[in-house]
Amino acid sequence: MEIGVRDEWLDRVMNACQTFTRDVAPHRTRSVRRLLADFEQQLPDPKSRTEHAVLRAMLVELSLRWGHADHWAYHAEFPDAECADDPAALALTIWHRPAADAKAAFRTWANTYLETMERVHPRYRASELRRDLDADFAQPLSLTTLARERHVTTRALQRDFQELTGLTAQAYVTERRLDAAITLLKTTSDKVEWIANVVGWSSRKNLNRALARRRGCQPREIRY
Questions:
Q1: For residue 94, what is the DSSP state?
Q2: Domain 173-223 has what CATH class?
Q3: Looking at the predicted structure, is the pLDDT value of residue 90 above 70?
């Protein structure tokens, strides 16, 4: 027998939605792409037609409200940006299509919204990449993988990023690693080899080389 809406299921959906709606700000630390993917993973699967209808209705409303908030957050970060289109409203048209899976429909909306934002606002893709690099600077950098995720060429992604930051993606990551390493050298007594590994280098030698080239110093000069 088909069930209605389970209280526990509805609570989980509402908690996920409330957490997600708080993650819209000009200076958030994660890219929209990752926020959307994380949010979808937190949504429990509906077990009845009623739960599917409820989830779909909640996601339609959330898509429009969150999309508008993110769009205006972009304008707060880049006040000189101009646009004649409303990316959230344009992406919302995908909800007019029948879908057996509300979560799949949300995924389609998310992809459509990102593609529309990147088309309307050329700096959006680069600013979102910067957030990902800020969060994951210690991880190995693969611009090819990052470009594939964004459905653009590596050259186009590198060009957009350099226009926004004045640095290549690799140089930007190096600077973030150095900032983190210097902070750890100043505030901890941890071994330099360990610090090098934590911030993303495979050896102390690589950290020493980067410090010498970029900052003109060695770890011992920072620590003592």
A1: G
A2: mainly alpha
A3: yes
Could you tell me where in the chain the CATH 1.10.10.60 domains are found? 173-223
The token pair that represents 80 in the structure block: 């000189």
3-state secondary structure 32-80: HHHHHHHHHHHCCCCCCHHHHHHHHHHHHHHHHHHHHHHHHHHHHHCCC
Distance, in Å, from the CA atom of 172 to the CA atom of 129, rounded to the nearest integer, reads 11
Q: Which two tokens stand for residue 14?
A: 């509402």
Helix (H) or strand (E) holding 3: none
Q: How many Cβ atoms from other residues are within 10 Å of residue 128's Cβ?
A: 21
pLDDT in tens, 66-82: 888 899 889 888 999 88
Residue 74 per-residue DSSP state: H
Predicted local confidence at residue 7, as pLDDT: 92
CA distance linking residue 57 with residue 201, whole number of Å: 47
Return the structure tokens found at 214: 């970029």
Long-range contacts for 27-32 (Cβ within 8 Å, ≥24 apart)?
Answer: 27/77, 28/73, 28/131, 29/131, 29/134, 29/135, 30/131, 30/132, 30/135, 31/128, 31/129, 31/131, 31/132, 32/70, 32/114, 32/117, 32/128
